[in-house]
Amino acid sequence: MATLQTMRLTLRPCRPGDRADFIGLERDPQVMRFLNGGYAVDRETTGPNAAFLMPTGTEPHVWTARRTAGGAFVGWFCLWPESETLAELGYRLRRAEWGQGLAAEGAAALLGWGFENAGYEKIVATTMAVNHASRRVMEKIGMRHVRTVSGDFPDPIPGSEHGEVWYEVERPRRRGE
Q: Which residues form the N-acetyltransferase domain (predicted)?
């Protein structure tokens, strides 16, 4: 993993020292509302796949995002490998950073890195159908909606009755491919 630089963000591989910032995100009910309904996260009782949702600073596929000017914590981004050619994009930003285009800026940098350096052929992302802000980010970076999945969730949260949307983007083809 490389450090990625955008106009306003520096994304670097996460470190254990980032854990307090990550936990701060999990404690904000508005940040967590589309993930678990906005409830406080109990790291001790989470399932084995929690690393994707609750990084600790040791995950090999999570980048910490900080403002390039001043180094303030913005959030985290991940490109979670599903196979050698497929990865899932994820991100979480502090509420104070919402609405400024930073999610799209960081996500676009990760897409570029994933296609150019990690060799992914396709990158996917999912969110609740009612999470319009996250859907706009996915569309802004060139992802397209491919399906909506309805499910009978064991612990439904408000909006889950509308399902989960899947977006994807394929590696751009170069001339001659």
A: 9-172
Structural domain of 114: 4-170
Give every residue of the chain whose pLDDT is below 50, as ranges: 51
Side chain identity, residue 1 = M
Backbone phi and psi for residue 40, each to the nearest 5 degrees, phi listed first: -60, 140
- CATH number for the domain spanning 44: value is 3.40.630.30
Position 169 scores a pLDDT of 96
Q: How many domains does the chain fold into?
A: 1
Structure tokens at 137: 């980010």
H or E segment and range at residue 144? strand 144-149
Give φ, ψ of 35 to 5 degrees.
-105, -45
- Residues 17, 58: Cα–Cα separation, whole Å: 9
Closest to 170 measured CA to CA, from 136, 147, 141: 141
First to last CA, the chain: 26
Q: What is the pLDDT of residues 9-36, one digit of tens each?
A: 999 999 999 999 988 888 887 787 767 6
Residue 145 lies inside a defined structural domain of this protein = yes
Residue 97 falls within a domain, yes or no?
yes
- ∠72-76-80 over CA atoms, to 5°? 160
Residue 15 included in any domain: yes
